[in-house]
């Protein structure tokens, strides 16, 4: 190509590139700024499994509730950057959603509003004193029987299950409807309870969970019934049920430290036995975020 022609081609190319660059710069200058992801307004409700009772450090804001700052709501908030209002409280029942559990402790539903984006809760285990009565009754019966037979099942039969179905299940539905009424735009997650006992008796666990061999599956079945009541109430009120039946299997109170999510009744490494430890609270948070698609 002759030099004059080559110079004209190069000059035209440079001009075209310059024009393109100016156009891109101008378009970039007038482009709308990237929208930041809005911060989730997150309210945590529930009982001691939500509060992380027994896990250090304890939230000094209300010592009566024995709420941990390492509970699963705090783990979720720290991971997602959500703005957390934590009103979880140890020993809470569904009734404490609408009444003051302690003097100076407002009903839990008071923390909700039309701007609430996310609600999590674990509740129901204290209704009818299901957990404490079952664990105490079966533990006592296990000690007296030397771990033989199924004395707790033989004595109490279907009484715990009957109370769950007759009282806890409708109370759970009412509580979740109350959440929906106070926070109509929120995504609501109702968490089940991680396994406390293994599926079958482990003789080596008797010193940690003094249950008779036949009462181990009996207690597990009661917990499964409670979790199913939570599941049904969640599904019937438009909430998401977070199921721990698979992920917590093999992490019950009979397992070794570092594996178990739930501390045993005796020789617990926590202030509150038969409750999640720090690992359990963290795993509950992680599974809940997986189910909800949060990160």
UniProtKB/TrEMBL annotation:
Q: Which domain of life is it from?
A: Bacteria
List the active site.
48, 275
Cysteine disulfide partners in this protein: 65-89, 138-152, 205-254
List residues of the SGNH hydrolase-type esterase domain: 44-282
The protein's UniProt keywords, in alphabetical order, are: Disulfide bond, Hydrolase, Signal
List the GO biological process terms. triglyceride catabolic process
Q: From the Swiss-Prot or TrEMBL record, what is one GO molecular function term?
A: triacylglycerol lipase activity
Q: Which Gene3D superfamilies match?
A: SGNH hydrolase
Q: Matching InterPro entries, A to Z?
A: SEST-like, SGNH_hydro, SGNH_hydro_sf
Signal peptide feature range: 1-31
**Which PANTHER family does this entry report, sorted A to Z?**
LIPASE 2 (PTHR37981), SGNH HYDROLASE-TYPE ESTERASE DOMAIN-CONTAINING PROTEIN (PTHR37981:SF1)
Q: What is this protein called?
A: Putative secreted hydrolase
Its lineage opens with: Bacteria, Bacillati, Actinomycetota, Actinomycetes, Kitasatosporales
